[in-house]
From TrEMBL, chain B:
PANTHER family: INNER MEMBRANE ABC TRANSPORTER PERMEASE PROTEIN YDCU-RELATED, INNER MEMBRANE ABC TRANSPORTER PERMEASE PROTEIN YDCU-RELATED-RELATED. It is a multi-pass membrane protein. This is ABC transporter permease. SUPFAM superfamilies: MetI-like. The chain crosses the membrane at residues 22-47, 86-108, 120-139, 171-193, 214-236, 274-294. One of its GO terms (biological process) is transmembrane transport. Its main location: membrane. Belongs to the binding-protein-dependent transport system permease family. CysTW subfamily. The lineage of its organism: Bacteria, Bacillati, Actinomycetota, Actinomycetes, Micrococcales. Keywords: Cell membrane, Membrane, Transmembrane, Transmembrane helix, Transport. It comes from Marisediminicola antarctica. It is found in: Cell membrane.
Length: 278, 303
């Protein structure tokens, strides 16, 4: 009778907020985040004449004739071109910096870290106005070239951060082994370092592409007469967006989300298989 | 791997090698690029901010000068917009934090045993990034517009006065800013909550602390790095944003932010010195706030 009762096992504290409350909240929050995406998708099928504001019935015409809306496709093509060039340049320069930062010790290290951090801590409107002021002072004609210069600039820091994490996870002993086996520096880089770095580089490139493709604020200051997809949308916003813009945005969305889900699912499954093996 | 134990031991001991020509060659192009297209533009912004109108010039022609009055002029003229920018940015940051924390907690802690679910929710959080920022904002404009069923429903439920409207109000702008920057808040919060050791939480409850006390004294401090970077990643772009607040999107005449003023001065009225001095003011205030905030919360290594 007087023997002390064994203490009841305590509930896991993570469940203390209520078993169903947090999952319910998460579901609602995710639905909320997806509302504008659903809206854009639905209105890409809207049978509208010019401005795509109210629902006028279902049609596939916007999807089959995307390039009927003047300038939408040209703006989209420009955005792809700009994002591609900016991604290639920023990923190359950023990867080189990331390797140097992790592998070497040198003076001005903290200065360089600050130089890499500041562009990310500067509001886009300041970055855009600064470059535009510089182009103005130097008498440079604004256009596709100046947009590419601007996009490369703000992508570099994001590439460095992304690739740096990957470089630090590579065991330098692997490279050393390569050198011990008489590999030339180039051979060691291309056959050992680069393949190990590749997932980080791919992630950085995708991030750069996405940042460049969707940038409007910096572009607006440095585009001159050239149009990009976001700039097209901004200009069209006052008179109504053609449904074709929703088509392009939805198509880009479907493409990107498929890509991301496939890579995420395959990497998770691979990790699970590896875990099962060991 | 037979050598793995040996290899990791040397890896741990290995310090970065001394600078060499290789390091210089690796750094030079990228650093030169940032100097040329990030640092020099900041200096040209400072120079532009001190310019005076050219004596016999047209609109948009300026001479280099040291007109410090440019700063006092814009502060006097646009103090309302400057204050409003920081107020809206603070509100958006607070709402984004309140919205994101439970979400990030669920993904990072509760969903931990289910990696696939975790990743799928993460994809849904970043999904808005894959639709143009401007189209997302326009979608909200339509959803919150006077003719929309949402507003009609709110009026029918008497949650909104019959003659009330949402678009063009500060509410709509702060709402848009919050929505657009939620992923920037959720991701860093998730990253730090994902590393949270739940045994600390169990220890807390073993020591008879209420869930709330555990949350306040264990969970929040341990997720502080995530809170700091989330707040910075939301606050900085929100303070400079001019899309949400502009009249074509969610704003109205009374919601103009500093970004809108910089844009219109630079691109429309060609008043470059005013645009430049406002940019420098924005940049300076943000740097001061960021430094103070980072010092106070003690997360100094952000990169």
């Amino acid at each position: 009778m007087t023997t002390p009762q064994p203490r009841k096992p305590r509930q896991r504290p993570s469940f203390a907020l209520g078993k169903w409350l947090l999952p319910l909240y998460t579901t609602l929050a995710l639905l909320f985040l997806l509302i504008p995406i659903a809206y854009t998708f639905v209105f890409s099928f809207n049978d509208s004449v010019k401005s795509n504001i109210s629902w006028r019935g279902f049609t596939l015409d916007n999807w089959t004739g995307v390039c009927n809306a003047q300038d939408v496709c040209e703006a989209f093509g420009n955005s792809i071109l700009i994002a591609f060039v900016a991604t290639v340049v920023a990923t190359t320069l950023g990867t080189m910096i990331a390797i140097a930062l992790v592998r070497y010790r040198f003076r001005f290290r903290s200065g360089i870290s600050l130089l890499l951090f500041l562009p990310m801590a500067t509001p886009e409107v300041v970055l855009g106005a600064g470059l535009a002021a510089q182009f103005l002072g130097a008498g440079v004609q604004k256009g596709l070239g100046t947009i590419i210069i601007a996009h490369t600039m703000f992508c570099i820091s994001f590439v460095v951060v992304t690739v740096k994490a990957r470089v630090s996870s590579i065991d330098p002993a692997l490279e050393e082994a390569g050198r011990d086996l008489y590999g030339s520096p180039a051979q060691v880089f291309w056959r050992i370092t680069f393949p190990l770095l590749l997932p980080g580089i791919v992630a950085a490139a995708l991030l750069s592409f996405a940042l460049s493709f969707d940038d409007f604020i910096i572009t607006n200051f440095n585009s001159g007469a050239a149009t990009t997809f976001p700039k097209f949308v901004y200009v069209a916003a006052s008179r109504g967006i053609p449904a074709e813009a929703n088509v392009i945005a939805s198509a880009v969305f479907v493409f990107a989300i498929t890509l991301v889900i496939t890579t995420q699912v395959t990497s998770t499954l691979r990790a699970r298989r590896m875990a099962a093996k060991s | 791997m037979a050598f793995s134990a040996f290899a990791t031991a040397t890896a741990a001991e290995q310090a970065p090698r001394r600078a060499s020509k290789v390091a210089l060659l690796l750094l030079l192009p990228g650093i030169a690029y940032l100097m040329l297209f990030f640092l020099v533009p900041l200096f040209s912004l400072v120079i532009t901010s001190l310019q005076a109108p050219a004596e016999f010039g047209d609109i948009g022609e300026y001479d280099n000068a040291f007109r410090w009055e440019n700063y006092t002029t814009v502060i006097g003229q646009y103090s309302a917009q400057i204050l409003r920018s920081f107020l809206y940015a603070v509100l958006a940051t607070v709402f984004a934090l309140l919205f994101s924390y439970p979400l990030a907690y669920f993904i990072g802690v509760r969903a931990r045993p289910y990696p696939l679910l975790q990743k799928l929710i993460l994809v849904m959080v970043i999904a808005p990034f894959f639709i143009s920022f401007l189209l997302r904002t326009l979608a909200w404009k339509q959803i919150l517009s006077d003719e929309s069923p949402v507003v009609a429903a709110l009026k029918a439920l008497s949650l909104l006065a019959p003659d009330a409207y949402l678009t063009g109000t500060p509410f709509a702008v702060v709402f848009g800013l919050t929505y657009n920057f939620i992923p920037f808040m959720t991701l860093p919060l998730y990253a730090s909550l994902e590393r949270l050791d739940t045994r600390y939480l169990e220890a807390g409850s073993d020591l008879y602390s209420t869930p709330f006390t555990t949350f306040r004294t264990v969970t929040i401090p341990l997720s502080m790095p995530g809170i700091v970077s989330g707040v910075l990643l939301t606050f900085i772009p929100a303070a400079g944003d001019y899309v949400n607040a502009s009249r074509e999107f969610l704003g109205g005449t009374g919601t103009t932010m500093i970004g809108n003023v910089i844009e219109s001065n630079f691109l429309i009225s060609l008043n470059y010195p005013a645009a430049a001095s406002l940019s420098i003011i924005l940049m300076a205030v943000i740097l001061v706030l960021v430094t103070a905030y980072v010092r106070r919360s003690g997360t100094e290594d952000l990169l």
